[in-house]
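Hello,

Our lab assistant flagged a job as stuck in the queue for most of the afternoon. It eventually completed. Since we weren't sure the result was trustworthy after the delay, we are filing this so someone can double-check. Below is the sequence as submitted and the structure that was eventually returned. Let us know if re-running is recommended.
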Amino acid sequence: MNDHELELEKALAAVTAMDHLRDGMLVGLGSGSTAAYAIREIARRVADGLKVEATATSPASEALAIGLGIPHVSFERVERVDVTIDGIDEIDSSLRAIKGAGGALLREKIVAAASDLVIMIGDSTKAVATLGRRSLPVEVLPFAAGFALRTLRNLGTPLTRRRKHDGAFFLTDQQAYIFDLKFGVIDDPEQLARTLEAIPGVIAHGLFLGQIDVSIIARGHNVVVRCRKDVAAGAGSGDQAKH
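-- returned structure --
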């Protein structure tokens, strides 16, 4: 599948996620190229009369939303969010995912925790049988970088400290470092999450294991919608294919 076809899938997944929006909602806006499709689609519907406000997981998403005319609320003022729409790096059939390729994993996780409904959207390459094919980002305080590097190496998997194109170390919006771990296969995501959370200086990791309510994965001209069984009323349950 070529890049153009994948972009069309992202756009289709974003359009499908709009089924969950209603007037009066506060909508969480994710980060990254797939989430950007959702932001543009929300803006189009706001222009057509949809009455929602939004709060963003990153300055880039905030700037895009404001530029497109979506009423914005700073997350510092927010106690709860009705629905968040975000992209994923990969997701399995149990709605466990890896996120954070763009470096906004901590804020994405915070906004997801504040949300009544969390929807993840993606193209067909994002669905996997087992997590770990893509790098797992781990956000680390610069003060703890050396210690965290040694401790993460003890996990026995290749890792790198993320850099920008100019060679400088990548910094998150919290001015923290990202270490990218290449597992290939993560046999026990829950245990790995507990291990990472126990390392002093690690402030976030990219495993999203209980936060996701709905996944929308586009495959060509179709979408597969998968929901948690106890998801909010109206979202449905199980797997649904849409054409």
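-- support follow-up --
The delay was a queue issue, not a problem with the job. The result is valid. The longest strand covers residues 115-122. The domain at 3-127+209-220 is CATH 3.40.50.1360 (Rossmann fold).
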